Task: inverse folding
């Protein structure tokens, strides 16, 4: 791949617009909060923390097909029957140096020593012994990430070589597929150090703003919750907006009601108001018809976004933009692999598959078509994969959810950092 895929301006999925290339060693985040008295649109500058991390990485090099799919109606496309599980990633260190003990041979994760408690020998593993991961947002520079735990509501700072550290805790209700299911950095994270999350509380689904070590601040509340369909996703959209995918809250009949916030794609500003450049400036709704979204990701340098959705009859991948309603699925799976987080850009879309315990890699073409043959990778390597995000150095970050219906090992749940399938340094402009 030749371009970094990510959620923000070709950066990380949930990362800042820019990068901090000079941040190494232990640097202490500092924080100031400037509040304009009487103005509910408060401005924040919140803490940021970085620490040095190890250099061991994993390369996943998977050969992809070159044939183009026939130009046909998207609803006719299905998962290709010729797909087979691909080989797992091979460990290597950054800047061409081999990891310790790998001077002569390379070992796949399946051949490595088993984890011992929270100590995981896999060089791709960044953090261990977390709760089931809801989402991952990679920090500028790509040496750490914020991780949201779906059931506990904890937001953790993870860096290789350091123990996970709690930055915030949110009161969540994980019933009906809810909890903390979406996490992204502020569109202006380099300046304000803020993050945003999509969460289910005992009373509703909502978007909250997170500043490390401060109580979460509600941004958009009152999104209905129900016995099912509470999962949602969040990412950034442009330089000053958030894109929010909401579930149907167990009421599929209301997803076509424009006034209802369930089963929608919302585009809001940092204060929960409709983004000013929405097609309907008075409404946050830009698309409708979702059931249980697993992830939302934006195409770098464009207004295009992709949404994974778990529907009653099948799992699907949808494509839209602020000026384009979600049409029929651009891809659908005959089975229900449990589509979850996604990362888009650099000529690829990577979808985490929870129930299938794999990732699915696709190459979008013009008008929502696809070229080449999709690839299933990392099958049964790390178990149930819930989060997918990308870093500014071209690496793919994944989060597992083995403690939520899987078969966890002693080091679960984990955050993993690898080269995207097909390798390369995606996104370097």
Result:
């Amino acid at each position: 791949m030749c371009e970094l895929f990510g959620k923000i301006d070709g950066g990380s999925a949930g990362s800042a617009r820019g990068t901090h290339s000079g941040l190494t060693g232990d640097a202490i985040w500092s924080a100031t909060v400037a509040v304009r008295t009487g103005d509910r649109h408060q401005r924040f500058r919140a803490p940021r923390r970085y620490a040095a991390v190890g250099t061991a990485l994993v390369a996943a090099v998977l050969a992809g097909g070159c044939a183009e799919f026939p130009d046909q109606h998207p609803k006719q496309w299905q998962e290709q029957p010729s797909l087979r599980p691909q080989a797992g990633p091979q460990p290597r260190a950054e800047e061409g140096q081999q990891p310790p003990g790998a001077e002569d041979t390379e070992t796949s994760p399946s051949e490595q020593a088993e984890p011992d408690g929270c100590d995981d020998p896999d060089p791709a593993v960044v953090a261990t012994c977390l709760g089931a991961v809801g989402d991952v947002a990679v920090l500028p520079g790509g040496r750490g990430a914020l991780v949201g735990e779906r059931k506990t509501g904890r937001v953790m700072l993870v860096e290789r070589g350091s123990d996970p550290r709690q930055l915030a805790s949110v009161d969540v209700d994980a019933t009906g597929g809810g909890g903390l299911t979406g996490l992204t950095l502020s569109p202006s994270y380099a300046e304000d150090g803020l993050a945003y999350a999509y969460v289910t509380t005992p009373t509703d689904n909502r978007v909250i703003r997170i500043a490390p070590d401060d109580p979460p601040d509600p941004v958009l509340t009152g999104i209905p919750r129900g016995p099912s369909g509470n999962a949602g996703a969040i990412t950034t959209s442009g330089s000053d907006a958030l894109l929010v995918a909401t579930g149907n809250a167990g009421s599929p009949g209301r997803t076509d009601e424009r006034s209802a916030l369930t089963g929608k794609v919302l585009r809001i500003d940092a204060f929960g108001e409709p983004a000013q450049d929405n097609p309907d400036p008075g409404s946050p709704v830009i698309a409708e018809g979702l059931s249980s979204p697993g992830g939302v990701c934006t195409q770098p340098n464009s207004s295009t976004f992709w949404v994974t959705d778990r529907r009653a009859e099948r799992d699907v991948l949808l494509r839209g933009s602020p000026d384009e309603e979600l049409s029929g699925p651009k891809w659908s799976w005959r089975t229900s692999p449990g589509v979850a987080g996604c990362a888009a850009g650099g000529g690829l879309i990577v979808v985490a598959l929870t129930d299938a315990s794999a990732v699915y890699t696709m190459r979008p073409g013009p008008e929502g078509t696809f070229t080449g043959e999709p690839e299933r990778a990392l099958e049964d390597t790390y178990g149930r994969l819930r989060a997918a995000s990308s870093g500014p150095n071209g690496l793919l970050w994944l989060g597992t959810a083995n403690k939520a219906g899987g078969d966890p090992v002693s080091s679960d749940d984990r955050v993993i950092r690898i080269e995207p399938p097909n390798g390369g340094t995606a996104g370097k402009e």
The longest strand covers residues 370-377. Residues 53-69+84-92+117-418 form a domain with the Neuraminidase fold (CATH 2.120.10.30).
